[in-house]
Amino acid sequence: MTTATAGGTPAAATPGPPPPAPARKGVLGTRPWVAACFLLPALVLLGALVVYPIGYSVVRSLFDSSGSEFVGLGNFGEVFSDDGILTAVRNNLIWVVVAPALATALGLIFAVLTERVSWGTAFKLVVFMPMAISMLAAGIIFRLVYEQNPDRGVANAVWVGVHDTFAQSSAYPGARPGRAANHLTAPGDGSFATRDAVRAGSPVMLPLVGVKPEHIPADAAPARAAEAAPGKVTGTVWMDFTKGGGGRPNVIDGHEQALPGVRVEAVEDGRVVAAATTRADGTFILPAGADGARLRLPAENFSEQYNGVDWLGPTLVTPAIIGSYVWMWAGFAMVLIAAGLAAVPRELLEAARVDGATEWQVFRRVTVPLLAPVLAVVLVTLMINVLKIFDLVYIIAPGPTQADANVLALQLYLSSFGTDSDQGVGSAIAVLLLLLVVPVMLVNIRRMRKERRR
After folding, report:
1. Boundaries of domain holding 355
2. 347 with 278, same domain?
3. pLDDT in tens, 175-188
4. pLDDT of 390 strictly over 60
5. How many domains does the chain have?
6. Residues 295 and 226 placed together within one structural domain of the fold
7. Integer distance in angstroms from the first to the last C-alpha of the chain?
8. Of 291, 364, 397, 432, whose Cβ has the fewest other Cβ atoms within 10 Å?
9. For 107, phi and psi rounded to 5 degrees?
């Protein structure tokens, strides 16, 4: 607005006072104190459930087991000098390196291979189903899966079945000569041999005991004494046991069962000069070359049947438990990777195929690089998860080998609440576990910030 002066020249109007500044608001258009009021309950819970326990654990790790005497870093010194805790640290490193990589790799394979098949959704549902099972239930399931007895453990049932397909099992495991059969000796290699040399024309009696009824073949006939044959060595191998008692040792009585299929060897000067297999009635015939040799029943007739792999033994207990973890979490990795794969531009894949790339080259040079952010999310998430693994190890590993499968989370529980509890050492393990998790968390935070900048 202007006003006229005496000369008729307009003059500039004096500016009025500036308008009042609006109330300061945050990034989301909210007053800071209003945001603080809404965040306060969450901050209180965060402090009570996260910040305070961490701080208390750090302080408690500096005191002795009773919490009354300050020991400084003494508990950490015990952590790094105790063999059991060092085993837990080593096993945790194995878990961090192996389990997330296996689960992520399987998830990637499942997601890619099921992308083009019509039943892919059903397959993904089946693979993801173990995620609905608690760690406790999964531990109980795999404790039964890894049972040593092939009649109960699925893993050994399959393993023994495959083994017996390619390797012949012994006919009569546990069989042995009776006490009265003093003409048979045991060299110590599992075989049995006659004490003296045999002669043609004189039948040889080879009685055995200790054969379980289920190991006698269904086609086995009653034992029969072998007849003398001129120029040949004959004999009988049979089960020298009469049901109900009353039988005579080293004599074929009544309905005593023959042991067919037993290999009999004639050994002279340490070498086998003749061999035969017993018939359905237990008899065998060796040629004239066996005259003057000693008879031997090889150990292969009596060795214990193959009983599978000791999955929960000291050597394999950690890989076995990692296998159960991968069974549970491969579905989680598959679902996340499949979601990332659905967002991959199909034009890039088709362009690579048009340029002559094979499916393997498309997968390695196009699909995997485009899925790198998703793979990083899955890998980091699983790494943080395995650092806290507790349930599976505690349930699956039996008592004698639990120390071999020990991990930090389990050792934390045992040190804090076990028989010889020391909460100072337990708190030190908790701090160590926190320090191991922090680098992985920092990597994850940095990755999330890079993604946000994009």
Report:
1. 78-156+311-453
2. no
3. 888 877 788 888 88
4. yes
5. 2
6. yes
7. 50
8. 364
9. -60, -40
For 258, counting Cβ atoms within 10 Å of its Cβ (0-12 exposed, 13-18 middle, 19+ buried), the class is buried
Q: What is the pLDDT of residue 15?
A: 61
For 428, the enclosing helix (H) or strand (E) is helix 423-453
In terms of DSSP bridges, do strands 204-208 and 233-239 run parallel, antiparallel, or are they unpaired? Answer: parallel
CA angle 69, 70, 76 (to 5 degrees): 120
41 found inside a domain:
no
Q: What is the pLDDT of residues 262-314, one digit of tens each?
A: 999 999 988 999 999 999 999 999 998 888 999 999 988 887 777 888 999 99
Pairwise pLDDT comparison (33 vs 140), residue with the higher score: 140
Q: Are residues 334 and 437 in the same domain?
A: yes
Give CA–CA dist 25/30, Å, rounded. 5
The span from the CA of 438 to the CA of 445, in Å, is 10
Give domain status of residue 29, yes or no: no
185 strand-pairing partners:
193
On whether residue 143 sits in a domain, the answer given is yes
How is the beta sheet containing 184-185 ordered, strand by strand?
184-185, 192-194, 294-297, 263-268, 271-277
Does residue 242 sit in the same domain as residue 124? no
Instruction: Return the DSSP state at 258.
Output: B
DSSP state of 194: E
Q: What is the DSSP letter of 51?
A: I
In a domain, 114, yes or no: yes
Is 0.85 surpassed by the pTM of this model? no
Place of tokens 């498309």: 362
